[in-house]
Amino acid sequence: MIAIFVTFNIKPANLDQFMQASYGDAAGSVGNEPGCFRFDILKDKEVATRVHFYEVYKDQAAVDAHIKYPHYLNWRAEVEEYFDNEPQITFMQTAEFPMYASHDLWMKQKHHMVNKIKS
Fold first, then answer.
1. For residues 62 and 22, what is the distance between their CA atoms, to the nearest angstrom?
2. Nearest of 93, 94, 92, 90 to residue 6 by alpha carbon
3. How far apart are CA 62 and CA 100, in angstroms?
4. How far is the C-alpha of 90 from the C-alpha of 88, rounded, in Å?
5. How many separate helices (H) and strands (E) can be counted in the chain?
6. What burial letters (b/e) apply to 70-98, b meaning 16+ CB within 10 Å?
7. Considering the domain 2-118, what is its CATH architecture?
8. Is residue 105 within a helix (H) or strand (E), and if so which, with residue range?
9. For residue range 42-85, what is the model confidence (pLDDT) as tens digits?
10. CB–CB of 4/92 below 8 Å?
11. pTM given for the model
12. Would you kindly state where each structural domain of the chain is located, as residue ranges?
């Protein structure tokens, strides 16, 4: 599995619009992309205009597919002008531990998340 941590610095006047657009991207990613297992939106506790995304994908093909989906393309077109600077992206590999965050756990979690989003 591939995890991605993205940090955005958003222009203060555009923070609410960025958050609303990002909720749509997160819902579309988990709900419509079979290879997306997690998409968290995190607000920085110290910098009010800094937002982080934590995303988990099945593999590189799922990461590559993510930026081709309509929900991502719509989100990117809307929010690009809200960035105070270029987003910082960190790619990571998820760890396989027998009792914690196994790949099977990521896959089982997806069904639960999709049901919550569609409710």
1. 19
2. 90
3. 22
4. 7
5. 4, 4
6. ebbeebeebbeebeeeeeeeeeeebeeee
7. 2-Layer Sandwich (3.30)
8. helix 103-118
9. 999 999 999 999 999 999 999 999 999 999 999 999 999 999 99
10. yes
11. 0.82
12. 2-118
